[in-house]
Amino acid sequence: MLSHQDPEYLRTRLQVLIVEHRDLDEAIAQLTEKPGKDEMLLQRLKKRKLQLKDRIALLERLLEPDVPA
Predict the structure, then answer these.
(1) pTM > 0.90: yes or no
(2) Residue 29: which residues within 8 A CB-CB, separation 6 or more?
(3) Integer CA distances (angstroms), 56 to 19, 39, 64, 65, in order
(4) Number of domains the chain is built from
(5) Position 66 in a domain
(6) How far apart are CA 42 and CA 34, in angstroms?
(7) Is 69 within the bounds of a domain?
(8) CA gyration radius for the chain?
(9) What does each of the 69 residues of the chain score in pLDDT, given as a tens digit?
(10) Per-residue 3-state assignment (H helix, E strand, C coil) for the chain
(11) Cα dist. 6→11, 14, 33 in Å?
(12) What's the Cα-to-Cα distance from 1 to each of 5, 6, 25, 54, 59, rounded to whole Å?
């Protein structure tokens, strides 16, 4: 899935995704408050936000050191 296993690359990518996730959260909140909101756009933004959440979780797992069981 991820071809770059360099921790620095993964940390940078993680930060980019976190910023995008936060921006989407703000956009969704603003769109929700508007009367006559575009439901299709709102659905797409929420779906993208969930995808980002999954990618963020994956990158966080990759960056965590392995702990022996």
Answers:
(1) no
(2) none
(3) 11, 25, 12, 16
(4) 1
(5) no
(6) 11
(7) no
(8) 15
(9) 455 678 999 999 999 999 999 999 999 999 999 888 899 999 999 999 999 999 999 999 999 877 765
(10) CCCCCCHHHHHHHHHHHHHHHHHHHHHHHHHHHCCCCCHHHHHHHHHHHHHHHHHHHHHHHHHCCCCCC
(11) 9, 12, 41
(12) 10, 14, 25, 13, 11
- Tokens at residue 12, please? 């940078």
Q: Which amino acid is at 2?
A: L
The tokens for 15 are 């930060």
Domain of residue 54, residue span: 7-60
Neighbours of 11 (CB within 10 A): 13
Cβ-contact 25, 45 below 8 angstroms: no
